[in-house]
Design goal:
Elements lengths: L1 H22 L3 H4 L14 H11 L5 H32 L5 H11 L4 H14 L7 H8 L2 H11 L4 H9 L4 H12 L1 H16 L15 H8 L7 H21 L1 H11 L3
Helix pairs in contact: 1-13, 3-13, 4-7, 4-8, 4-11, 5-8, 8-14, 11-13, 11-14, 12-13
């Protein structure tokens, strides 16, 4: 059984190993057919070419990094707090329409981002937020995935624990910060990982037009779109964009697995 699981693990790790090796391959190895998994003559030329191109940009690369960090941080924190605060009453209180609302939340998970792109654009346009950070951050905060994960986790917290806190004079916010959030730690850590990965790779799409507001992923995607000559640079870009979200996932994978098991998501 261990050998079978190990074989599946190696198979799953194959794309990651391929991306890492490709980033250090010279062009003649990248275009080699049949392709080789491991690099034969490792080189840092792909990264040197990438940094040379970045250095010639009229917008400082540090600005792109700031844009990505701000969008990712604000969107992730907003998703966690809004999702958890909305999930608390939905999971622990009965009010008219609560069951219908819970069903709508589940149904909303069936819609892909391409389906909601136009409605999101119309709403952001009406609010005057097009060509700003908030055009990306607010739709991310409004995602129902966070609400779904948090609700399914909070509903497992014993009601007797909340009732005892109320008898001791704890307010709703006290219960939320002192009981709900600590006990639902795996859920909100998972939500941080999922939201971080989504926002880290966003290009701003049709929401951001000003070059000074664009994130790193957009800049790197433009660099690698120049053609075959930048295939090596594209490999380096793929590795750079992969390192951060993979690292975040590895650090928090135990919480992610626990949350997926309790929420019923696979």
């Amino acid at each position: 059984m261990t050998m079978v699981l190990g074989a599946f693990g190696l198979f799953s790790a194959w794309p990651l190993i391929y991306v890492i090796n490709n980033a250090f391959k010279p062009l003649n190895e990248i275009f080699l057919f049949p392709p080789r998994l491991f690099v034969q003559n490792p080189t840092f030329n792909n990264f040197k070419d990438l940094f040379t191109i970045i250095g010639n940009s009229w917008i400082p690369f540090s600005r792109y990094i700031f844009n990505t960090v701000f969008i990712t941080t604000a969107g992730t924190l907003g998703t966690v707090f809004v999702g958890s605060m909305a999930a608390f009453p939905l999971a622990k209180y009965k009010f008219p329409g609560s069951k219908v609302m819970s069903s709508l939340i589940v149904y909303s998970l069936m819609f892909s981002s391409s389906v909601t792109a136009i409605p999101n654009y119309i709403i952001m346009s009406k609010l005057g937020m097009i060509d700003s950070y908030w055009a990306v951050i607010i739709p991310a905060i409004g995602s129902t995935l966070g609400l779904y994960l948090m609700k399914n986790n909070i509903v497992q917290i014993p009601d007797s624990l909340l009732e005892a806190s109320k008898m001791d004079g704890a307010s709703e916010f006290k219960i939320y910060f002192s009981i709900i959030m600590p006990l639902s730690k795996p859920a909100w850590i998972t939500l941080i990982v999922l939201s971080f990965q989504s926002l880290w790779g966003t290009t701003g799409g049709t929401f951001i037009y000003a070059e000074k507001l664009k994130p790193v992923s957009y800049t790197l995607s433009q660099i690698v779109s120049a053609g075959v000559a930048r295939t090596g640079v594209a490999s380096a870009v793929s590795l750079i964009m992969l390192v951060v979200p993979v690292t975040v996932f590895i650090i928090s994978q135990s919480n992610v697995i626990e949350t997926m098991a309790t929420s019923g998501m696979k």
